[in-house]
Amino acid sequence: MTQQSTRTDRLRRTVAYGVALWEMASRGATYNPLSRRVVQNPYGVYAALRRRRPVHRSAILGSWVLTRYEDVAAAAKDHERFSNNPRWREATTSVLPPAPDDYSILLMDPPDHSRLRRVASRAFTRARLTALGETIARSAAELVERAVRRGTVDWISEVAAPLSMRVMLEMMGIPGHERRRWETWVPERARLLEMIAARDQRRTAHRAGNEIQRYFTALLHRRSESEEDDAVSTFARQVATGEGISMAEASDMLSVLMIAGNETTTNLIGNGMLALLRYPEQMQMLREEPARIDDAIEEMLRFDSPVQTDFRIAKARITMRKRVIKPGDGVILLTGSANRDGAAFEHPDAFDITRKGPRHMSLGHGVHYCIGAELARMEARTIFGEALRSTTGIKLADEEPQYRQSTVIRGLAALPLRLERRARSA
Fold first, then answer.
1. Pair type for strands 416-421 and 152-154
2. Going along 29-99, which residue ranges are E strands?
3. Is 147 exposed, middle or buried (0-12, 13-18, 19+ CB in 10 A)?
4. pLDDT tens for each residue of 178-234
5. Exposed e or buried b per residue across 301-332, where buried means at least 16 C-beta atoms within 10 angstroms of its C-beta
6. How many CB atoms are located within 10 Å of the residue 226 CB?
7. Looking at residue 96, what DSSP letter applies?
8. Does the global pTM surpass 0.90?
9. Are 412 and 274 in contact (CB under 8 A)?
10. Whose CA is closest to 187, among 3, 361, 411, 10?
């Protein structure tokens, strides 16, 4: 960050801190996404909001904040009254959402959203996922073997992120030697989703977005007659034949898939490993009963979701818990809070891979349910299975790993581990 941006960032934090104090004194609860304490552990703040002001008008964000499972689920699936399209926004003070030309499918309602989702689903056929399974298994085995051979690893930068990137490059049909540019572009572009991004970070995000758009546009032109089944070639053929998607929409869609496929999966694998380490009895159960892996992945998603926040804009006058949301108001859905709601989940702050109950909100709800959900689950299932099979022990090398400064995407900056190799069978 530049010196000017650093000063601006400090000023924003100072102002937000003052507003948060006022909200707490006058309303009994507050949500300050600029607080580093909240970023590191938001769950206490979420609990206070659920108890005291589950439908909270945030002066800091200029938007409503929903925290209870029932309310978040209702808003997420009601696209008739809660829109993803920023053109419905009237509250100019709201921090939400990004500009209309950013991540277009994320900012669309049916029927346009349905049209693009049908096109995108062709990149996630059962046959394509099965083929990607081979890449996932091969990469997971290589990354874990390298880690256990050394005995130490940063689980994020040396396992989770490389696995996610390899899979997405393979899915897109992008050569592996181009990996480094994507390792720069993806986190830079993802900052545009943040409520707390500084001005220079947004400029960097827009620049990365423009470079990504140019890259995919050129690639789509080159692949218009390709018969391969990678995502770029699949979209290119549909653009060339006019099958429900334009060149700009295809380029944007590929950008969304590339960024979401890396960020969500990397942070699922990181947050999930930290949960296992902090609940060693659950890790031991998973070692002894590997058939529980699917339930374990769902609990990882619920317990410390890689995506904490979703956004909507009210299209009508809506009353929720005696509070009136007006047309054009921004609405923040705190999915991370919904996943810890005691009204929906028994002992919600405990990590329990045997848990039964309602579906978590981590991968969306309703028409905006994550289209790559099954791929993310496949990657997590494979890497955790490989890690537990290859080791007799996994321990934290840093007792207080730090989360990245983000409120939408929740992920660790690093996760240093010590690994004990399992002896090979004779």
1. antiparallel
2. 55-58, 63-66, 82-83
3. buried
4. 999 999 999 988 887 777 667 777 788 889 989 999 999 999 999 999 999 999 999
5. bbbbbbbbbbbbbbbeebebeeeebebebbbb
6. 17
7. -
8. yes
9. yes
10. 411
